[in-house]
Specification:
Strand content: 25-35%
Shape: globular
Distance between the termini: 48 Å
Helix content: 25-40%
Radius of gyration: 37 Å
Structural class: alpha+beta
Largest sheet: 6 strands, parallel
Number of helices: 38
């Protein structure tokens, strides 16, 4: 689906206007609501910077939509308040009308706009300023033509100032414009040098004066990766393979590895490494201009009347040869406006004068290049010279105009004057000024070196840096976070300049300004840069012995632990700190102060929390986000002993956006990715050096890739012919690289394809940490995936374990172990498949594989191989320790175990289905001590980093946590003997007789959060009412009840607590306990029919208007049929009315209830589908069914609730689900709006259950028969929900709350716009319900059992 030809033509003709004159960011919400964009499009656009690139990305999306999407976009422009935007929308529509008549006669020639779109960001090289070096350009063009056809990489290398960039830009422009190469995708130019940064303390200028080092700094890998990662996500997959990437000015050989995503590229660099010849076609740039070329450069700065004299002047030719024809020097000389022979003679004497210091620094140049620059500077007046020299304070990157205004503004220079001076310096060839919508200047790195050499040593450096920091402070009035975020230089380098200025106060202020940090995080899209700033600041403060520098180390560690939260989309650092359980007082104080100062954003804080906090012996040292959705279920890692730790994993696995990624762990950035649309990556692995990756898509052979060379690898036979595809099920790389090369083991389902042939299939293979041995095992029978034998007759209860030596390829040991062992405390073999525990994991715990760890699902232990005898295992009279050492009994009842081995110190980790990890120290093949880690989320992968005692834990929310298993802060528990462990279990059982919480409920009474709690201790039942305000809640009522009760409730604006006693013995009591008067009374007693077997209270609602309490009960008969009963109690006079359904359900769900209506879904005893709507009665009208639908098939319903209860009636409309429903029929029945919504949910979520749209006024919600909410919205906006929601507050006036079960975040949406307003990380417990106060300035969240709660309050 794409736009029609006439609309496409209009978009292309107006592309420049749309890219440069529009801010698409302000329309994203409306475009999503109009279904022009989907959620994924909005996410990608919001992550794209700068603004013009974001606009360009939107145009690419728009042209792939239909014509209707374009018209919706134009209408949004016309509705805008800005006249210019309105006119743009009207103009676009008018052009479409004109194009419909003229499109057949439209010219096919490529327009100027089309050309510029193909030359994205390629620097202009106008003939008025630049000359063409034809021979050099022809060489580049010839190679580019080959790349256009076959792909490949070119490297143009040469000394600085030799014209590499100009030649490359000229060649590309010639091929695209004149010869139609690289079409229709064009090129993309990236100035790598603009991303360079210095690390603080790496740049100390006096050291550079004493050493032969380039004053250019080192490119920041993390910034380069962030830029390239954003670029890769911005460009469509098809374009990446065909787009020509231009990587300009690469400073370091190691950065080539981060550019491997491009299939066609040309790079420029001053250096050339022998490795480049393997991956690039290398072209050496001529080091100097020919005499004719140099004359042409000089002519650009001269009047045409002077051309003849230049060509025939021997002094001019002498000057050209004196500077070796270097293009940069020739350009500077040309700008000097030399008029007489004496002027030329003076230039020659200046540039040929030797300067020892400069000669050592610029040993590649046989002339005084800096003196050439000085000639141009001397032509400036004294003020401009001083201003120009001050530019040496900046790093060798593109500097935005705003930063230069901040520096020069202290001297009273206005913005207009700043632009004038920069243009003057551009005319002198001292810098390049980019006068665009985001003006900036670029200084050649050689001129940067010249400026810094001319500084007055350290004093001048400190002064300039202090001036720049003071200028920044003046621009933002000392509120660092208010500085314009479009000045990327400020947020990247403020800390560096403050350190160079030795400005203690600024460093301390910025390190406490969490809002400044938040903006930096959003701009960088990584925590790495901020951590570098903080580490450098901490080092500086420690060196200067600044008091309390340690507290910033606390903040650094806190941010690293929560990186996975901080980098979540729309997450705010200040808000995160307000909702984390932080015990550092100064961070709390700073956060609250910043939140109160802010006049724009609102913040929420945790006012009180009462929960069983997750106990962790240690906190994670780092956290990362790897993956996007639930199908991204695991990760694999390299060996950091061979370089930076790398991680492989998937994003959007199994979807059209699926990609297999290799990530640099330290900087959390993707360095290589493979796009696999609509593929599901089943297995993958990575080599120990992180350079070879392998993956398998179900049903296809494995694929191997070399990251460095970007080549696919193949198996070959001895005759060097490509081997036929192998169908491996798993690949396990050796953890070390042997002298003979990379080694890995493969497992296959076909025994003829593996060297070790096993009849029933190998279960697993593990390498020892040195890579010299492998251990494998298999069952000696056919089995189900659970390990239970397939068939119950004549099967051997044995598994075979073998240990193989890799060098000799011999089996060192082979021995059996029981396949099933008994339940309970006995570890004896059993053949009972119903009660036996099957073996499912085997691993080693020492380098020589003398001791193994075995897991039998809920129990496990260690097996000593010395003097091992299987017969001893079957002998009950022999002590168990002869063969098997069970794991401690306190981890006995685990459902599943995973074991990982650390190679630095023997450690073993056991992971349970209860989301607990036990890490044990091992000594002399015995478990010695342990620590426990408990998690609130399901865990996917647990593993040790090879060679280190660092544990990685990957959970369902795609968070990867690192735990350091060393240090004084870790308190290892000594492992007690089994007898002591049994005593511990006994103590835990005794603790069960302590006071237990049976039920809880929460509400706001007089706008204060109140909780009621029903507890029992032995046979005593107690009702407690308390204020939920502090960590230790104060109890207002503590009342002992006279009999057993099971449920308790409290409602806002009802100063009473309700307790309910249910019994299958046909008796229910409802008791009201008044809070203030401490009085209680029986509200009613209900006797169910004789044939009732059980009673459940499903819903309670209090209606303040007439003081009615409504109770919905479900009564079962013989456990398979149900009916609903609704009891209404008038709390004023005690009048009770009971409604009982006439029909029975086979199952029933109360999906919605408010003060007046109840909606229930289910099936009757004949398996027909039911939707029933009840009107809850009052003191006059009884409860009754007012609408009912019954169908053979599942149905979609729309229920319209009345706004005015006395005038309007509830309406119910329904339609059965069809296997294939014609789209026109669907729209005809439901109407366009409702029909589209129903179809959207069914298609996206593959709904098989009933769908109910509940509408009230302009608001609506769509949910299924289990009360899961899929969509919430109003007449103009809607929101797709995939998570637990605030189902009791559908019709709130301001906010709506969602709890994301996967990420454990609370998400708050504004009702009017359905925009996401706030995200609160919440990992204390799983939220089951919410309760607002009347003004929606505070809310309570609680868990499923209502035993844990937390109060949020607006700051």
């Amino acid at each position: 689906m794409v736009v029609s030809e006439n609309i496409l033509l209009v978009i292309e003709n107006n592309r420049r206007r749309l890219v440069n004159d529009l801010s698409i960011r302000q329309f994203l919400i409306d475009l999503r609501n109009e279904n022009v964009l989907n959620d994924k499009d909005v996410d990608e656009l919001e992550a794209t910077t700068p603004e013009n690139r974001q606009n360009d990305r939107f145009i690419r999306i728009l042209v792939k939509r239909d014509d209707q999407a374009f018209y919706k976009f134009c209408n949004l422009l016309i509705q805008n308040q800005a006249n210019a935007i309105q006119n743009l929308g009207k103009d676009l529509l008018q052009q479409v009308d004109n194009a419909k008549e003229n499109i057949k006669n439209s010219e096919s020639d490529t327009s100027d706009t089309d050309i510029e779109n193909l030359l994205r960001d390629l620097p202009l090289t106008p003939e008025s300023d630049y000359v063409s070096r034809e021979q050099f350009n022809d060489i580049i063009c010839d190679q580019l033509k080959q790349i256009d056809q076959r792909g490949g990489q070119i490297l143009v290398h040469g000394m600085p100032g030799s014209g590499k960039t100009v030649a490359v830009c000229q060649a590309i422009r010639q091929l695209i414009v004149e010869e139609n190469c690289f079409q229709p995708y064009g090129c993309y130019w990236i100035k790598i040098v603009k991303l360079q940064v210095f690390l603080a303390y790496e740049l100390v200028l006096n050291e550079y004066f004493m050493h032969d080092q380039r004053f250019s700094g080192d490119i920041s890998e993390q910034e380069l990766l962030a830029e390239l990662r954003g670029l890769a996500t911005e460009i469509d997959n098809a374009e990446i393979s065909n787009l020509l990437f231009v990587f300009d000015d690469i400073w370091n050989q190691k950065y080539f590895q981060y550019l491997t995503f491009s299939k066609k590229s040309i790079a420029t660099s001053r250096f050339n490494n022998i490795k480049n010849k393997n991956t690039h076609y290398c072209i050496a740039a001529p080091q100097n201009l020919t005499n004719e070329e140099a004359i042409q450069v000089l002519e650009k700065r001269r009047n045409k009347g002077n051309i003849y004299r230049l060509r025939n002047n021997t002094l001019v030719n002498h000057a050209i040869h004196s500077c070796k024809g270097l293009p940069l020097a020739i350009s500077v000389i040309g700008a000097l406006n030399l008029r007489s022979d004496q002027d030329w003679q003076n230039v020659i004497e200046t540039i040929t004068t030797k300067d020892l210091e400069t000669e050592v620094l610029l040993h590649d140049y046989d002339f005084n290049l800096f003196a050439t620059f000085q000639l141009s500077v001397n032509q400036l007046d004294e003020r401009d010279q001083e201003l120009f020299r001050s530019l040496g304070v900046f790093k060798a990157v593109q500097v935005p105009l705003q930063s230069i205004i901040s520096l020069w503004g202290l001297q009273g220079i206005s913005k207009a004057m700043v632009v004038t001076i920069l243009k003057k310096l551009y005319q002198q060839s001292l810098l390049k000024f980019v006068d665009s919508h985001s003006p900036s200047c670029i200084l050649h790195d050689l001129i940067i070196e010249y400026l810094r050499r001319s500084m007055d040593r350290q004093k001048s450096i400190n002064t300039l840096n202090k001036n720049l920091v003071d200028g920044y402070s003046k621009q933002c009035n000392g509120k660092w976070f208010t500085y314009p975020p479009m000045d990327y230089y400020y947020y990247q380098h403020l800390i560096f300049h403050a350190i160079q200025a030795e400005d203690h106060q600024t460093i301390l202020e910025v390190m406490r300004d969490f809002k400044w940090m938040n903006i930096k995080l959003k701009l960088d899209k990584t925590l790495y840069n901020l951590c570098l700033d903080m580490e450098n600041s901490i080092d500086y403060l420690r060196t200067k012995t600044i008091e309390n520098w340690q507290q910033y180390l606390q903040l650094l560690q806190l941010l690293q632990r929560h990186e996975s939260i901080l980098l979540t989309k729309n997450m705010d650092l200040v808000q995160v700190l307000l909702t984390l359980d932080i015990d550092i007082d100064w961070i709390k104080e700073c956060t609250l102060e910043l939140s109160r100062e802010n006049s724009i954003d609102e913040y929420w804080k945790i006012e009180a929390i009462n929960c069983n906090k997750i106990e962790r012996t240690i906190e994670p040292s780092k956290s990362k986000i790897i993956g996007k959705i639930d199908t991204d279920g695991r990760v694999a890692i390299s060996n950091p002993g061979y370089g930076n730790l790398r991680i492989v994993g998937t994003e959007y696995n199994g979807t059209v956006s699926c990609r297999f990624m290799t990530i640099d762990y330290e900087i959390s950035k993707n360095i290589y990715e493979i796009f696999l649309p609509e593929s599901f990556v089943r297995e993958f692995s990575i080599s120990p050096d992180g350079n070879i990756i392998a993956y398998n898509i179900g049903g296809y052979p494995w694929k191997f890739f070399n990251i460095e060379s970007k080549e696919e690898l193949y198996f070959i036979e001895n005759n060097l012919q490509k081997l036929q595809d192998e169908s491996f099920t798993k690949i396990i790389f050796c953890p070390v690289i042997r002298k003979s090369g990379m080694v890995f083991v493969t497992l296959s389902q076909y025994q003829e394809q593996i060297k070790i042939t096993i009849d029933y299939g190998i279960q697993s293979v593990e390498w020892n940490h040195s890579g010299s041995k492998i251990i494998l095992w298999w069952r000696k029978f056919s089995s189900l995936p659970t390990g239970i034998p397939f068939g119950t007759n004549n099967w051997p209860n044995e598994c075979q374990i073998q240990i193989w030596d890799l060098q000799s390829w011999q089996c060192l040991k082979s021995f059996p172990v029981p396949a099933l062992i008994q339940r309970g405390n006995q570890y004896l073999p059993t053949s009972n498949v119903n009660t036996g525990r099957p073996l499912h994991i085997i691993n080693y715990i020492d380098s020589n594989i003398e001791c193994l760890a075995l897991s039998y699902h809920s129990k496990g232990g260690l097996v000593m191989l010395e003097n091992y005898d299987l017969k001893l295992w079957y002998n009950e009279d022999i002590e168990l320790e002869k063969n098997f050492h069970p794991f401690p009994s306190f981890i006995y009842r685990i459902r599943y175990m995973k074991m990982s081995m650390s190679t630095d110190q023997p450690l073993i980790s056991i992971t349970t289905y209860n989301n607990e990890i036990y890490v044990f120290k091992v000594a002399n093949s015995r478990l010695q001590s342990y620590i426990t880690l408990k998690f609130s989320r399901d865990l996917h992968t647990v593993m040790f980093i090879h060679g280190y005692n660092r544990l990685l834990v990957y959970d369902i929310a795609k968070s990867l946590y690192e735990y350091a298993m060393e240090g004084d802060s870790i308190h290892w528990k000594i492992l007690k003997n089994d007898r002591n462990n049994d005593n511990e279990k006994l103590e835990r059982r005794r603790s069960l007789h302590h006071e237990r919480i049976l039920d809880s409920s929460y509400a706001y009474i007089s706008n204060n959060p109140v909780g009621v709690q029903l507890t029992n201790k032995g046979e005593t039942y107690i009702l407690k009412v308390y204020e939920v305000q502090h960590q230790s809640c104060s109890t207002k009522i503590h009342h002992t009840l006279d009999q057993e009760y099971h449920k308790c409730y409290v409602f806002s604006n009802l100063p009473s607590a309700i307790v309910i006693r249910t019994s299958s013995r046909k008796l229910m009591n409802f008791l009201s306990q008044d809070e203030d008067k401490h009085q209680r009374k029986i509200l009613c007693s209900y006797n169910p029919p004789i044939n009732a077997t059980s009673i459940f209270v499903r819903k309670l609602k209090y209606r303040k208007a007439d003081d009615i309490l409504a109770i919905v009960m479900e009564t079962s008969v013989q456990g398979y049929s149900y009916w609903l009963s609704i009891i209404t109690i008038n709390l004023c006079n005690g009048q009770t009315m009971i409604y009982k359904d006439k029909d029975f359900y086979s199952n029933c769900n109360c999906v919605y209830m408010d003060e007046y209506y109840l909606i229930a879904c289910g099936t009757d005893l004949s398996n027909q589908h039911l939707v029933q709507c009840y009107q809850i009665g009052d003191h006059i009208t009884r409860t009754q069914i007012i609408a009912k639908q019954k169908y053979d098939r599942k149905i979609a319903c729309k229920i319209t609730l009345p706004i005015n209860q006395s005038k309007d009636d509830l309406k119910l409309k329904s339609l059965p689900f069809q296997s294939r429903l014609d789209e026109n029929e669907l729209l005809e029945y439901w109407g366009e709006k409702d029909g589209d919504l129903f179809d959207k949910i069914r298609q996206e979520n593959k709904i098989l259950n009933e769908l109910l749209m509940i509408e009230k006024g302009t608001d609506f919600v769509i949910l299924d028969d289990t009360a899961r909410v899929y969509l919430k919205g109003n007449d103009s906006q809607f929101f797709n929900s995939e998570f637990s929601v605030d189902s009791q507050n559908f019709w709130c006036q301001k906010f709506w709350i969602v709890f994301n079960q996967r990420t454990k975040n609370i998400e708050m949406y504004e009702i009017a716009s359905m925009n996401l307003q706030y995200i609160f990380p919440f990992h204390y417990f799983d939220i089951w319900g919410f309760e607002w106060n009347h003004e929606q300035s505070s809310f309570i969240v609680f868990d499923r059992h209502k035993r844990q709660n937390c109060v949020f309050k607006r700051v």
